[in-house]
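User: Can you predict the 3D structure for this chain?
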Amino acid sequence: MDNETLKVYLMLLSQGDKEAFVKIYEEIKKPVYTVIFRIVSSKEYAEDITQEFFYKLYKEPPVMNIDNPRAYFFKTARNMAIDHLRSIRETEALDQDILFEKDLALNIDIENALLILCREEREILTLHLNCGLSFAEISNITALSLPSVYRRYKKAIKKMKKQLQGG
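Assistant: Here is the predicted structure, written as structure tokens:
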């Protein structure tokens, strides 16, 4: 679904159209979950945050005209995941290892290779490969310069390739 179609569904959702919400949900549920999971590294937290994301979208759809709804959704999901990590650090004082503990049920080669990347590298890979965002859109979402996003993407791909080839 392209951004223009998403804009129409957002407008309909803001007018109370429940079917518009279903269409948006079906279109972006997997990429939103993936973005959140790559940041929090916990299946349970990712599911909770994803549910909260869609609850908020349903209850309070954006009323302003959004030029790039996909980028808006992924930036919102990213911010919610980062806020969640901050709240864990502040309220539970969990150490960094617990925050990034991998889910054993997802213990496959790609997931293991992704774990060697830092959070920013995983995030950039996910936004580009899973969500189909351009490097310029990722630059806007992450507040990193376009060359920096591109360099980090290339570095992450190189690390992944080395890991997956047994190195």
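Residues 96-107 have pLDDT under 50 and may be disordered. Residues 18 and 58 are 8 Å apart (CA to CA).
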